[in-house]
Structure formats: structure tokens, C-alpha cells
Amino acid sequence: MRLVGRVCVVTGATGMAAATARRIARDGGSVFVVSLDAGEAADLAAEIDAGGTKAGSQGADLRDDAEAGAAFEACVERFGRIDGLFAVAGASARRFGDGPVHEASPAGLRAALDLNVVPALTAAHFATRTMLSQDPNREGGRGSIVMMSSVLTRHPSPLFVTHGYAAAKGAIESLTRSMAARYAGDGIRVNAIAPGLVATPMSARAQADPESVAYVAGKQPLADGLLPAEAAAELAVFLLSDESKFITGQVISLDGGWSVTEGPTER
Questions:
Q1: pTM
Q2: Cα distance between residue 53 and residue 74, in whole Å
Q3: How crowded is residue 108: how many other Cβ atoms within 10 Å of its Cβ?
Q4: Which of 61, 125, 137, 239, by CA, is between 20 and 30 Å from 217?
Q5: How many CB atoms lie within 10 A of CB 245?
Q6: What pLDDT, on the 0 to 100 scale, is given for residue 205?
Q7: How does 172-181 read in b/e, with b if 16+ C-beta sit within 10 Å?
Q8: Could you report the per-residue pLDDT of 47-91, keeping only the tens digit for each?
Q9: Cα separation of 41 and 134, whole Å?
Q10: How far apart are alpha carbons 141 and 35 in whole angstroms?
Q11: Does 165 participate in catalysis according to the annotation?
Q12: What is the DSSP string of 15-39?
């Protein structure tokens, strides 16, 4: 029960976002889900609420300032404060033309930034403004922000090549460190998780490809394949809680061994 009395915003309503929202609730925290798909956000909040934990939701496109601002305002109106943000919302831009930079379309590369960097920046903007306006908790902190990066930013593989996506996640890592430096004195911590390949709707293409599945099984030996979304939830809750009160500005790999193993022969 590490998050009793805390209010956490989760952006996204499936995969790692959904697993983390449920884990926050199990640890006693209130959850406010913000997602582009208002129905998915409402369903997840209703599920959590039915389990006895307070939850709320609002549909919003975090690339739209007005919609994003209204969502964070709705959270404050409902719960009175924001103690944590898990900024997960993002997507692959492969369908828009992302890929190897020489083959990718300029529109696809821009889409990768628009789908991943802009929602993270916007969510961080509204969450940080709220955290700065509220009194510190009993541990002296005003809030914790957890961003979502990827193992591909620092440990790329020729089998998974979307250069726009990698650039977007690299930008999020830079944002994490620069925010952490600026707001440490205000009692706001900012960290990021860099997962390997996780079993989520976003990785459906890789899960359906035998070559990718075999590659990941060797590259992530601790998981013997794709990581469960719950693994990210466990780390996110640790970073949102006071158990990590002296940790900020860090990008923590959650990759099942990806970054330290060679895996199968790469093509």
C-alpha cells in the first residue's frame, strides 16, 4: 500500500498504462486515466472503481493544449491534487511511414515525434504546474513523474528499425534529465523507464512474426520472450512511491537482459 492518499494520472488505457493503473489502485492510490480513446479510459476507470479504489477518466488528445489542460483540470477537480504522473501515451509511427531513415518518409518521421514527444511534453507541463502549486507531502515531496523511453534508444537492433521512434524516445530521455535537474529543489522527481519488447497491443506486429519472437527470446533471456506489462507497472509504482524518494533524473532499463546479451545472430 505504497500510494495511499496519493493521486496519480496515467496517460493511456491499454498495455503498460492499464497494468500500471491497476497496480496503483492495488497500492492504495487514486487513479485518473487520460486517453485518446475516451471509452477505453472510462472502462478502465470503471473497472478500478468497482474494485473499491477511487478512479476517474477523461478522453483527451494530448497533442491538443485545450483538451490536455481540461483533462488535468478535471483530475484536480475530482481529487484535489496530482502526486504522480505516468506518461505512457505514445505509438509506433510505422503505419505513417517511419522506418530506416533512408526509407522513411519525412511525414512518418514527423509523426513519430508528434505521437510520442508531444504527449509527454504536454502531460509533463500540466502535471508539473499542478505539483508546484501544492504543498509538499509528509516526506517533503511535491510529486513524481515517470516517463516512457525504450531500450532502442541506447541499444538498437537491426531487426527493429524505426528511426523516428528511436529519436522520439531519445528526446524523452533528455527531457527526463533536464526536468529532474530543474525541479529537484522543488521536491518533484522525474525518471524514465526504458523497456525492452513488452507484450502490449503496440507490439502485436512483432508478436505475430516468428523471426521477431525467436530473436526476442534470445535477446531477453530473463523473460524468455516478451516482457509482461506488469513488470513495467511494478517499476513505475516504485518510482511513483516514496520508496524511490532519493532517485531522480534516471533512465532505468527494464529489458530482460536485452542490453547485456548478444542474442541470436543479428542480420
A1: 0.93
A2: 18
A3: 21
A4: 239
A5: 14
A6: 78
A7: bbebbbebbe
A8: 999 988 899 999 999 999 999 999 999 999 999 999 999 999 999
A9: 26
A10: 27
A11: yes
A12: HHHHHHHHHHHHTT-EEEEEESSHH
